[in-house]
């Protein structure tokens, strides 16, 4: 017989904590989309990936609530056979939604890096890392689905000929890899960022903003230390904290991935964070060819740029309709909506007025 939430206080506490962070996840996503609206920038791949991750966190927390009803947080001796079978089935669903939510968050972060740091070699690195993430999610998913064969053997040990792989080895392989990829994802843009020509204070601030993802590393370190819980036969009680941590990991990952894109809202209404313009670092010359190194006065600024000894100031300004600020994009689109980039050049005329009967010198 399913438990009520009142009958399962331990599971209810875990579920309540996750519900609180789910509200924060919705708030972070809302601020992210609001920031896009303030900049008048259409939704991009990284936004859609975050929305997919948000949907998966909702599905995950729904299954978590159902797990509380079927014994999550209760000692296995007090859980009936039918509830135990349902609990194991829900455990598989929680694992699968957690895996794909992590993947969606990584896709969002890497696509954001590609949009921000328009440097050819860095973009290639990001695409290579994206390919690795695709391979990794497929391997995680297949491991989850094929760990026990036939699949039904996961919850029905009476199936003849059923066999399961090494759960502990799979657990360690998955979480060590996730830990390492979390670190790599967080620090990936830092070397590029510190080569930009901006003041140290801003570099530190933006670096810390990108490295917020390292907070998630703590979750994996703790889970790796909880081997005794993974090995415990009391799965309904011991796995409760593991499920809670899995949900919190994807919720916090979603929140932290949205921090850079909620800056316009924070700056406009609270006066904190960075200005509303999306940061953009690019390297190209006047002919469109990519060049390196790149120096920017401020990240994404059009005020002063140096491209291979070509100094571009306000007198020769380039509008990138996909990435520049809303004012520039609006002005440029009114001039020619069919062009991707518009160069506006101001010609300066110097006149030397002389006395009567003398020549005028014009340049």
TrEMBL record:
Keywords: Membrane, Transmembrane, Transmembrane helix
InterPro entries according to UniProt: Rhodopsin_dom_fungi, SAT4-like
Organism: Mytilinidion resinicola
Compositional bias ranges of the Acidic residues kind: 320-329
Domain Rhodopsin: 31-267
Protein name: Rhodopsin domain-containing protein
A GO CC term attached to the entry: membrane
Main location, first listed in the record: membrane
Coiled coil feature spans: none
Keyword Membrane: yes
UniProt keyword Membrane, yes or no: yes
Positions of region (Disordered): 317-338
Membrane-topology descriptor: Multi-pass membrane protein
Segments passing through the bilayer: 12-35, 47-68, 88-114, 126-147, 167-194, 206-226, 238-259
Family: Belongs to the SAT4 family.
Compartments it resides in: Membrane
């Amino acid at each position: 017989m399913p438990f009520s939430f009142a009958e399962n206080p331990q599971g209810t506490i875990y579920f309540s904590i996750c519900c609180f962070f789910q509200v924060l996840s919705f708030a972070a996503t809302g601020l992210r989309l609001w920031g896009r609206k303030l900049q008048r920038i259409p939704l991009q791949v990284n936004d859609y990936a975050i929305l997919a991750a948000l949907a998966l966190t909702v599905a995950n927390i729904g299954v978590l609530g159902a797990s509380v009803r079927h014994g999550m947080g209760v000692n296995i001796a007090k859980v009936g056979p039918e509830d135990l079978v349902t609990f194991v089935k829900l455990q598989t669903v929680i694992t699968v939604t957690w895996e794909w939510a992590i993947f969606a968050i990584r896709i969002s972060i890497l696509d954001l890096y590609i949009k921000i740091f328009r440097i050819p070699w860095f973009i290639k690195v990001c695409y290579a890392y994206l390919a690795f993430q695709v391979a990794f999610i497929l391997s995680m998913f297949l491991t989850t689905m094929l760990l026990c064969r036939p699949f039904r053997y996961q919850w029905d040990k009476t199936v003849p000929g059923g066999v399961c792989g090494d759960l502990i080895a799979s657990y360690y392989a998955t979480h060590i890899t996730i830990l390492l990829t979390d670190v790599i994802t967080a620090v990936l843009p830092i070397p590029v960022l510190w080569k930009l020509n901006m003041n140290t204070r801003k570099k530190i601030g933006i670096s810390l903003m990108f490295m917020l993802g390292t907070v998630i590393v703590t979750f994996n370190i703790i889970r790796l230390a909880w081997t005794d819980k993974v090995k415990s036969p009391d799965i309904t009680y011991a796995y409760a904290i593991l499920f809670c941590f899995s949900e919190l990991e994807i919720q916090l990952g979603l929140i932290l991935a949205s921090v850079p894109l909620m800056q316009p809202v924070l700056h406009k209404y609270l006066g904190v964070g960075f200005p509303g313009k999306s940061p953009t670092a690019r390297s190209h010359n006047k002919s469109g060819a990519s060049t390196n190194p790149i120096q920017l006065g401020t990240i994404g600024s059009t005020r002063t740029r140096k491209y291979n000894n070509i100094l571009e100031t306000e007198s020769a300004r380039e509008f990138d309709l996909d990435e520049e600020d809303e004012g520039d994009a609006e002005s440029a689109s009114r001039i020619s909506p069919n062009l991707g980039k518009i160069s506006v050049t101001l010609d300066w005329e110097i006149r030397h007025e002389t006395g009567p009967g003398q020549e005028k010198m014009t340049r």
